[in-house]
Amino acid sequence: MGIDLPLIWAVIIIFGVMMYVVMDGFDLGIGMLFPFVQDERDRDVMMNTVAPVWDGNETWLVLGGAALFGAFPLAYSVVLEALYLPLILMLVGLIFRGVAFEFRFKARANRRHIWDKAFIWGSLVATFFQGVALGAFIEGFKVVDRKFVGGTLDWLTPFTVFSGLGLIVAYTLLGCTWLIMKTEGPLQQKMHDMARPLALVLLVVIGIVSLWTPIAYPQIAERWFSMPNLIWFMPVPILVLVTFYGLLRAVARNAHYTPFLLTLVLIFLGYSGLGISLWPNIIPPSISIWDAAAPPQSQGFMLVGTLFILPFILGYTYWSYYVFRGKVTHEDGYH
Amino acid sequence: MFGLEALELARIQFAFTVSFHILFPAITIGLASYLAVLEGLLLKTGDNTYRDLYHFWSKIFAVNFGMGVVSGLVMAYQFGTNWSQFSDFAGSITGPLLTYEVLTAFFLEAGFLGVMLFGWNRVGRGLHFFATCMVALGTLVSTFWILASNSWMQTPQGYEIVNGQVIPVDWFAVIFNPSFPYRLMHMATAAFVATAFFVGASAAWHLLRGRDNPAVRKMLSMAMWMALVVAPIQAVIGDFHGLNTLKHQPVKIAAIEGHWENKPGEPTPLILFGIPDMQAETTRFKIEIPALGSLILTHSLDKQVPAMKDFPPEDRPNSTIVFWSFRVMVGLGMLMIFVGLWSLWLRKRGTLYSSRPFLYLTLWMGPSGLIAILAGWFTTEIGRQPWVVYGLMRTADGVSNHSYAQLGFTLVMFVVVYFALFGTGLGYMMRLVRKGPKTGEGDEHTPGGPGQKRTPARPLSAADEGHEADSSSLSKGN
User: Has the keyword Cell membrane been applied to this entry (chain A) (predicted)?
Assistant: First the structure.
């Protein structure tokens, strides 16, 4: 009585996806920055900055999938069916990249370029289709009688392609500022030079999405622009602009840590904006978390184990990042 | 007809990704317990052979664990992408069970695995042994959850159906459904036996190359004791599992036996070989032994076993496939028992480590356990058809609405990618096996792990040999 289980589960899953985006975002970004760095030793350093943590990052993706299955089976079935191709392509990209991570270091020097390419393309494909899936999610799904009734390629629209490209920019900026934080010397300098243009492109992307969504989707326009919502949500775009200003300033004064932290803030704000646009729907445009929820017996049963184990996973995550804090140099070999 | 083809493609795709995946967890389960036994024996006897073996197998364990995680990522999404109607129908039961399986696996990875793989010189021996035992226990707990989910789909109970959705009423009844204890025992034991034969084949390979040392001998010896004792136990468990299936899914048994109809007053024969023909409703070219079917399945000489024709055609699984997949499993199981007995005889004669015919057979039996596991799963899953949740939802009603072209495209992609990636992974594991156990490995300081600055704690980094090394060109990656 009185415990809103669907709400709790929505918060857990939103938190899980947020953890995933923040943590896997920068290591996907590093994959996409690989083509801009030719020096083998620098590439080693780039990979070494994330090598110790990447697999933990994907933990959240697996957990997110399983939790969605158990807590919101309707959303799991509709969204995954509708996004079949982009999700499968994303997963294939991710496993390619994951295996490349491990085997690049174990491969003979003359074979290494194969794994380099697997790493680059895996990251690119995974990010693009993640963005496409995100865009398609915003656009919503045609559901009749608990069944997805849209077409095979409903997910392929100008908006979803744009959001795929947009996510590539966002993750690349994350990876770029991560490397500014984690490296030094010429590699850091190179990332430093790329940060400003990347940030400006991302600003444009966020601007376009902010205009596109309310124009195309009246529901979203109403959510943002009706009174008193407008006043409550106004801080979000203002904060975005302030953060961008701070980010550009931080890059200009050659700060090491601030650019990454501010990019994280940006991602967080973008994510919040998305949440504001869609809440409380788990299958946009009209099925809410309460409509899609599994019965309380299921959600309650899962919650017991999740609340017990989540602290351990969080503790482990914190610990892995703590152990690997600080700069990574050519001399550090993690393998 | 087009719809049927798409359904078949969806099934093939799921079967392909899950078959690839299960090989890794099966070895993980077996090796984790093997490592716990090795370390326990090391602590008890102080014999350093056990330590060398522990270090040798823990690296292979690490690579295998990593492959399991990567291939498992896909599985967390395949239920929804390929079986959306099933997911919506049964998600409130299978979803939480899957979540518990995933949570258990991550709990392991977050804690004890790091200590186990990297903590040899950093924590006390007792604590390290504890970590290994917890990893072994954890793999079994993970097995527990996923098999609870699968068994519930085979023999559902503890639910009610409200508005076309399954609702759990009694979780205890859901988890401990009628086929669960048998399936859990059968699968866990299968993982142990499969691993024993994998280990045994590795030892045989080294012995055949003339690399005869105490560690290799110990490997072979332990594997063969397992084959001798556990393979027959597995046969007994399998028999009980079969009787349980007869009770709850009689048509599956009829399909496995290629048994179409009972003649009045006559006990059921056992068909040894034949080709069941689903269209003609008969088993062609059959060789049968009178009354043996009744004897095995009812433990009597007069009771009849239900036959395929007792069930409407639309409720029958494909006998042609399960008849043979079952015989592959049983045949391999018999061979395993034979290898176990032969090893005992050679042990008595003192030629266990030198009989080349025996070592060759043991080498070739290396993948037998894994093949038997796949054959067994094919039998039970194809035998469940045409149901996805037995008696509640047909597979054809559970599938997502994807086109033939779409499924064909992704299937080809999975096949290419899996063979390329996991093929490389398996190749790397084989390289590690080929190196063989080294003396005094535990004295080296293993890089990485808990409490160390700037070293990785990922499973795969515990194995630091190059995967295509003629090590001279191996890079500083090491």
Answer: yes
CB proximity B158 to A under 8 Å: no
What domain range is B293 assigned to? 187-385
The predicted model scores a pTM of: 0.88
Residue B252 lies in a domain: yes
Alpha helices by DSSP H, listed for chain A, are 5-33, 40-50, 54-71, 73-82, 84-104, 112-139, 158-182, 185-216, 218-225, 229-233, 235-252, 258-278, 289-292, 296-323
Q: Which residues of B touch A333 (CB under 8 A)?
A: 476-478
pLDDT for residue B476? 32
CB contact under 8 A, B81 and A44: no
Query: Cα–Cα distance between B89 and B110 in angstroms, integer?
Result: 33
pLDDT at B2 over 70: no
B residues 211..230 contacting A (CB < 8 A): none
Look at residue B288 and give its three-state secondary structure: strand
Residues of A in contact with B401 (CB under 8 A): 81, 147-148
Return the top range by mean pLDDT from B170-174, B289-293, B303-307.
Answer: B170-174
Rounded to a whole number of angstroms, the distance from the CA of B406 to the nearest CA of chain A is 8
Cβ–Cβ contact B472 with A under 8 A:
no
For chain B, positions 95-154, list CB contacts with chain A under 8 A: 95-103, 106-107, 109-111
Judge: B80–A76 Cβ closer than 8 Å, yes or no.
yes
Given the cut 0.90, state whether the ipTM is greater than it. Answer: no
Interface test with B, best of A298, A310, A332 (most B CBs within 10 A): A298
Residues B40 and B128 placed together within one structural domain of the fold: yes
One domain for residues B27 and B118: yes
Domain spans of chain A? Answer: 5-323
Put simply, the answer to whether B88 touches A80 (Cβ < 8 Å) is: no
Residues B211, B162 within the same domain? no
Residue type, B441: E
Question: What amino acid is encoded at A241 in this protein?
Answer: L
Dist CA A49 CA A56 (whole Å): 14
B402 inside domain = no
Locus of tokens 């176990």:
B340
Residue B405 belongs to a domain = no
b/e code A176-209 from CB counts within 10 Å (16+ = b): bbbbbbbbeeebbebbbebbeebbebbbebbeeb
Q: Is residue B8 part of a domain?
A: no
Domain shared by B149 and B203, yes or no: no
In this prediction, residue B315 carries a pLDDT of: 92
Q: What is the pLDDT of residues B155-194, one digit of tens each?
A: 999 999 998 899 999 999 999 999 999 999 999 999 999 9
Q: Do B107 and A313 touch (CB under 8 A)?
A: yes
Question: Which CATH number among 1.25.40, 1.20.1630, 1.10.3470, 2.20.28 corresponds to the domain A5-323?
Answer: 1.20.1630
Same domain, B72 and B23: yes
Average pLDDT on A311-333 reads: 75
